[in-house]
Specification:
By secondary structure, the protein is α/β, with parallel strands linked by helices. It has helices at 2-31, 36-50, 77-88, 137-149, 172-183, 207-216, 254-267, 285-297, 320-333, 351-354, 365-376, 395-407, 429-445; strands spanning 59-64, 67-74, 103-110, 118-124, 127-134, 157-163, 188-194, 197-203, 225-231, 236-240, 245-251, 272-278, 302-308, 311-318, 338-341, 344-345, 413-418, 453-455, 476-481. The chain is built from 13 helices and 19 strands.
């Protein structure tokens, strides 16, 4: 009887133990923080937090159980290593089922080293704009520290730097210091470091400073070469920034002064600062050259126009159409004074690209579509009457579409054309085709590959033609993305 009672007690204890164990397992699997679903969700959240911030906007991570998969295109090998380490170091939870990420699968590609490695700085009055490449955030901070030592405040500096591998050997950092130090002494100018070649150009405040800069630029870091093109004291200059146009120097009469101000204000919608003064001078023909060049110059993004030593020089950054139209104006007008224009062509800034997440990869089709819509909303693509010559009112739209094509090289663009049979006059089919070809030729002339653009057959109405409302009835030209289903 005692034997049976003991067996019964053991059976009860065993049963209770099994139930308790089952409840514990159930709690661990379905209820506790470390259940597989909750653990994966927690690790996913921690992994995303580890890659939050400006340095890892290019990276994405997903969890497969307790294995993390990191994807994206890193700007440098160092950025890739930092991202992988950040995910690997995520701590685990508590308890016997706790633990962090067990492994990290590396699916990160890296942008190739830049060749040549480019760095540039532009100084206009008291504003300095930096663009180009640096190897890491520490290098960017070092550049900012140099500018601070040179007297530039945070509000005076515009940073547009990107991170890339490929820094040339030798003392690249000292080459940056040399170029920025001498650029800071100019009234306006540009410093560019391309590979191991330093270029400095601009306007010195006087000939003494000019000679000092020339002397210092003859002593670059070992292995580096320099090229310097400096002007002395200018007779007259115009300095263009995003926020103002500053006119300074001497003019031969008050009438010339007022006329230059009038021309500037008629084209430039930001403040025009007048620092000109009337002085006696034997030659005033140069004022006519300034009148011809000024309207086109103020359409630049930024830059400097200077009259010195019997010539007018123009340097700055401009969209493709702004640079084209200025050159056309100078050729058509003709002046007694030489005008030497130069522009670094930059894309038109579009909000769709500015606000899109920086993934380190090409923009998505959705972003490119939004940018194209924005570009076409800037104005019509029109032509001179009864000709296949693009009108100047098309400049903004052409610049916008060119920016989209350049930023979205993985997509194909259709250039559509149509003519109304019931318009004010019937546009000849050949003229419409010539206009369509003119638009395609414009983009190809500005660097768009031929295989990125396709011309569609000319239509006899505007059915399905994008942005038709913006174009005159007999001038139906528009651009759209090729649909994925079109092959």
């Amino acid at each position: 009887m005692a034997f049976k009672r003991r067996n019964l007690i053991e059976l009860v204890v065993l049963t209770v133990g099994v139930v308790v164990f089952g409840l514990a397992v159930s709690h661990a699997v379905y209820v506790s923080h470390n259940s597989s679903d909750k653990l994966e969700a927690s690790l996913q959240e921690q992994a995303e937090a580890a890659l939050a911030g400006d340095l890892f906007t290019w990276a994405s991570v997903r969890l497969e159980g307790r294995r993390a998969v990191v994807t994206g295109t890193a700007p440098t090998e160092d950025f890739k290593a930092q991202a992988l380490d950040a995910v690997k170091s995520i701590p685990g939870g508590d308890g016997w089922l706790g633990g962090g990420i067990r492994s990290v699968r590396d699916q990160v590609s890296v942008q190739p080293p830049a060749d040549p490695y480019e760095f540039a700085a532009f100084k206009t009055t008291d504003i300095i704009t930096l663009n180009g490449m640096v190897p890491n955030p520490e290098a960017a901070e070092d550049v900012s520290a140099v500018l601070t030592e040179l007297g530039f405040g945070e509000e005076d500096v515009r940073l547009q730097l990107s991170y890339r591998d490929g820094v040339p050997d030798g003392d690249w950092a000292q080459a940056i210091v040399l170029g920025l130090s001498e650029l800071a002494r100019l009234d306006d100018g540009e410093f560019r470091l391309s590979g191991k070649n330093l270029y400095l150009s601009g306007q010195a405040p006087n000939n003494d400073v000019k000679l000092e800069i020339l002397s210092r630029m003859t002593r670059p870091p070992a292995g580096y070469a320099t090229s310097v093109d400096l002007l002395g004291t200018a007779v007259w200059s115009a300095t263009l920034t995003r926020s103002e146009l500053r006119l300074s120097g001497d003019v031969p009469s008050n009438a010339a002064r007022q006329e230059l101000i009038r021309i500037a204000k008629s084209v430039y919608k930001q403040p025009v600062v007048d620092q000109m003064q009337v002085s006696e001078m034997a030659d005033s023909d140069w004022v006519e050259a300034i009148k011809v060049a000024l309207p086109g110059f103020v359409r630049y993004q930024n830059g400097v126009m200077v009259y010195l030593e019997d010539r007018v020089t123009i340097n700055g950054q401009a969209t493709a159409s702004a640079a084209d139209y200025l050159r056309e104006d100078l050729v058509q007008a003709g002046t007694y004074v030489d005008i030497v224009p130069h522009a670094d062509i930059v894309p038109l800034r579009l909000e769709a690209f500015e606000t899109a997440p920086d993934t380190g990869e090409l923009p998505t089709r959705q972003v490119c579509t939004a940018a194209l819509d924005e570009a076409l909303d800037l104005g019509p693509i029109n032509f001179e009457y009864a000709r296949d010559e693009l009108s100047r009112e098309s400049g903004r739209a052409l610049d916008g579409v060119l920016a989209v094509m350049t930023a979205c090289p993985h997509l194909i663009f259709y250039v559509d054309a149509a003519m109304y049979a019931g318009g004010k006059r019937i546009a000849l089919e050949k003229l419409t085709q010539d206009r369509q070809t003119a638009v395609v030729s414009y983009f190809i002339a500005h660097g768009v590959p031929l295989d990125q653009i396709e011309m569609t057959e000319v239509r006899t109405d505007t059915s399905g033609l994008g942005r038709a409302r913006d174009v005159d009835p007999d001038r139906q030209i528009s651009v759209r993305l090729r649909e994925s289903s079109d092959g």
